[in-house]
Amino acid sequence: MKKFVGILVLVGAGAGEMPHNLQGKWCGGPDVYYSWCSKDDNSITIDKDGFHAIESGCHVISSSIVGRELIVPGRTSPKFDSYATVYRINFRCEGEGARWRENWRVYIDRGGILKVKSTQNSRVMKG
After folding, report:
1. Which residues pair with 94 in a beta bridge?
2. What one-character DSSP code corresponds to residue 97?
């Protein structure tokens, strides 16, 4: 009898990369962004290295999955609930004469809406 030994490989964002499903152009803000854009005002572009907005940008320091967010409760039973993956992402940012750190708790909600809870700290003015 032969035994099968397998290796499970998880594919996702690296420690210093934005998750692939968050990448693209998003409009709105500061806490809710939409994937459809009518104007370039109030838009951010997310790529694997971080995000860029008007006159500022942030580079990913670390990213990790921290849990799940209930986005659609099941109508008849909790076993039919829908969840979104929640990420914690830490950034090093720069723009408009300043540098700061920013931390996101982020997920994609129903209808493809990007939900961001952001905190900023360590704001240091450039000389």
Report:
1. 57, 99
2. T
List per-residue pLDDT tens for the chain, 127 residues long. Answer: 444 333 323 334 456 899 999 999 899 888 888 887 766 667 899 999 999 988 899 999 999 999 998 887 776 667 777 889 999 999 999 998 899 999 999 999 888 899 999 887 755 545 4
Q: Domain tally for the chain?
A: 1
Range of the domain at 51: 20-122
**Per the domain annotation, does 8 fall within a domain?**
no
The two tokens of residue 109 are 């909600």
CA distance 105 to 88: 5
Q: Is residue 47 part of a domain?
A: yes
78, containing H or E segment? none
Predicted TM-score (pTM) of the model is 0.76
CB atoms closer than 10 angstroms to residue 68: 13
